Amino acid sequence: MRNVIVIFTKEMKSYFASPIAYLLLTIFAVIFGFFFYTFTRLFVLQGMQMQMMGRGMPMDVNEQVIRPLLSNASVLGLFLIPMITMRLYAEEKRSGTIELLMTSPVRDLEIVLGKWLAALVLYAAILGISGINMGILFAFGRPDWKPVLVGFLGLLLQGGCLLAVGIFISTLTRNQIIAGGATFAVCLMLWVLDWVSAYDQSAWAKVVSYLSVVTHFEPFSKGVIDTKDVIFYLSMIFLGLFLTVRSVESLRWRS
Amino acid sequence: MIKVEGLTKRYARTLAVNDISFEVEKGQIVGFLGPNGAGKTTTMRVLTCFLPPTAGTAQVAGFDVLEQPLEVKKRIGYLPETPPLYPDMEVGEYLTFVGKLKGLASADVPKRVKEVCDRCAITDVRMKLIGKLSKGYRQRVGLAQAILHNPDVLVLDEPTSGLDPKQIIETRELIRSLAGDHTIILSTHILSEVEHSCERVIIINQGKLVAQDTVTNLTNRLRGSEQVALEIQCTNGALNHGDVRQRLEQVAGVSRVVLKDTKDNRCTFEVESLQGRTIRAELARAVVNAGLDLNELRAVGFSLEDIFLQLTASEKAETKAETKEEAKQEAKV
């Protein structure tokens, strides 16, 4: 456990010692801010129209602002995650520091866990920026806070599983660009897989669309915690980290 | 302390290390010598548990590298060819990280970091970013990293590469000062380095062990006869080198005397002894007894360089002969 913390601290420091963390925080703040502005503006406009037309349709901040916001944040995550994970192993392999890690009295699993946790905490910090926007909603309206928390839980789970996939891909190459590009492709694929359900209802189509990380996020954005989705994410995280450990072990045999 | 038996490492197509066996006693400094690509780094990587051997065993402090890698790693300090440094960390920060990673108790880390910084003369750059350091400082930070957890065994892969002459001398001294409490294996392709700092030499070439012995034994074994250069001066009167030559030839055990150079009233001779004879003391006595001044007397030839070339060349000749025979056989078929 101590070794995990040592690796975690080192990774955290190196995220914040380089511009990566700040760049990602900024990208998220700007784009999420734009989403937030768009959705609240739309919401306010709709509210005024409702009043003018005299039809008292109930307006729901959770349903009309927070839910699309969270869905969009999850898509934004797909773009940010490759940038978080691409350096984790590729950089160590390129600079030779992998020799230090692998000749230290530390287990491969501990290194992988430390790196994954650091990536997850950075991702959580990035998502944390949206807390400011949420705060504004809570200051001026009365949204229900429970679906918001569930939504963030979903974002974290989804992020965790894509980060695990990203670390795995980072162990396969010593080139950060390749690691980032491949991770992005895989993330994008996992996102669009659920499109097959639009034209195909066969059994295999169900399997393929089940693999899509976004379908499993939908319930969370509505504020529903479904065990089958939680299990999907947890098993994906487990699979990703398992593959990573195996891949790191195989570095010794292949190199 | 280190015991390697029948170690073989095969990469996809190449055989990097071929059936190497050696042992290193506690507290020894052993030089690992070989041309580039001989398999030095691969052997070291096996010892440090970075790579598993294809066949054979390697033990460090009684622990097998495959069976108990964690125990081996705790007892080994490793400086790879390129020091494993994070350019965006400060030196002190980096060493603290390594200390914790190597399993030092958190309370001991600052003390140890300070000690190794003093020892490796990097205290003045402790607050600097590693990325901004010169090559020499980086190498020393790498060395500091290797000795940080006070390991029983130190494995240093070309510790003086890329340093300037002054730094090379300092690093050699540092390495020698570490012997005794630490068992050290250092690899190099610079031969004088081995002569300077190692007690024993292991020479490998093309993945095979060519020779292993102490430096003096190796030179004795391979040269057979002794070659000595003498500079003789005559302070009163002109020097008759024909006469001096005769005197030198009369010394017991001398087989050949060659006049190399004459200048004013000085002359230089090169004297070769018979097989297995030492002649230096006798030569000196002969010169002094003749009333001449002996300015210089030193052994020449057969440095480690010659031995090395001799060994690797004979190896090549053998393989050439083998391939010729193979070619012949193939032709027959």
Largest beta sheet of chain B, briefly? 6 strands, mixed
Helical residues, percent of chain B: 25-40%
Helix % of chain A is over 70%
Average pLDDT confidence of chain B is: 82
The overall average pLDDT of chain A, rounded, is 90
Note the total helix count of chain A.
12
Number of helices of chain B: 11
Most extensive chain interface and residues per partner: A-B, 26 and 30 residues
Order of helices and strands of chain B: EEEHEEHEHHHEHEHEEHEHEEHEH
In short:
The complex is a heterodimer of chains A (255) and B (333). Chain A is an all-alpha fold and 255 residues long. Chain A is 83% helix and 0% strand.
Notes on the protein architecture:
- The complex is a heterodimer of chains A (255) and B (333).
- Chain A is mainly alpha-helical.
- Chain A has one domain.
- Helices cover 83% and strands 0% of the residues of chain A.
- Chain A contains twelve helices and no strands.
- Chain A has helices spanning 2-17, 20-53, 61-85, 87-95, 98-102, 108-128, 130-140, 145-171, 176-192, 203-210, 213-222, 227-254.
- Chain A is globular and about 75 Å long.
- The two termini of chain A are 28 Å apart.
- By secondary structure, chain B is an alpha/beta fold.
- Chain B has two domains: 2-221, Rossmann fold (3-Layer(aba) Sandwich), CATH 3.40.50; 224-299, Alpha-Beta Plaits (2-Layer Sandwich).
- Chain B has helices at residues 40-47, 69-74, 91-101, 109-119, 135-147, 165-178, 191-197, 215-223, 241-250, 280-289, 304-332; strands spanning 2-10, 15-24, 29-33, 55-60, 63-64, 76-79, 153-157, 183-188, 200-205, 208-214, 227-233, 254-263, 266-273, 293-299.
- In chain B, the strands form three sheets. Chain B has a six-stranded mixed β-sheet with strand order 6-7-8-3-9-10, with helices on both faces. Chain B has a four-stranded antiparallel β-sheet with strand order 2-1-4-5. Chain B has a four-stranded antiparallel β-sheet with strand order 12-13-11-14, with helices on one face.
- In chain B, α4 crosses α5 (135-147).
- The chains are: A mainly alpha (255), B alpha/beta (333).
- Chain A binds chain B through residues 2-3, 6-7, 9-10, 13-14, 17-18, 95-107, 252-253, 255, and chain B through 11, 45, 48-52, 70-71, 73-74, 76, 78, 80, 82-89, 93, 97-98, 100-103, 145.
